[in-house]
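Provenance

Sequences were taken from public entries as deposited. Structures were produced by running a predictor on each sequence independently, with no templates supplied. The record for Squalene monooxygenase from Salix brachista is shown for reference.
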Amino acid sequence: MECADQIFAGNTDVIIVGAGVAGSALAYALAKDGWRVHVIERDLTEPDRIVGEFLHAGGCIKLAELGLEDCLDGSDSQTVFSFAAVHKDGKRSAISYPSNASGRGFHYGRFVQKLREKAASLPKCLSSKRPILLWIRIRDVTNQRSCEHA
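Predicted structure for Squalene monooxygenase:
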C-alpha cells in the first residue's frame, strides 16, 4: 500500500476528507486563496437522499461571501423569506428574515455536486475517489518517516 508521502508528495498543501457541503466549500475557498488542495471522497456520484435541505439566511450570506451562491441555482431551490414555528401548546409564530436576506430550500445532491464542480474548476484543487480505509498515521522520529495503514 502507498504511503501518504508517496501519494501527495510535494504537490498538496491540504488534504480534505469528504466532499460534502463543508469539504467542497472549504476546498474551493482554500484553492481560491492559492492552497494546493486534494479532496478525498469515497463516492463522487451525486448523493441521492430522500430529503430536502434548508439553508437559513446566514448560510446564504456566507455562500455569497465565498463566491458559491450560484451553486444553489439549478438545485430546485426555493427562496424563503419567512417561516413559521409551532410551539408545544399549538401557538404559531411567524419568523421573518430582514428585508435584504432570504433562506433557500434545495435538493441536497444537486447542491453538493455543484459545490464539487465549482471546487474542481480551480487549477489548485484535485478530487479523487479513494476508500477511506487508507487511513494513515505518519510519524516523524528523528527525521525517519514511517507509515501505518488501517
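The mean pLDDT is 81.
The CA atoms of residues 3 and 111 lie 33 Å apart.
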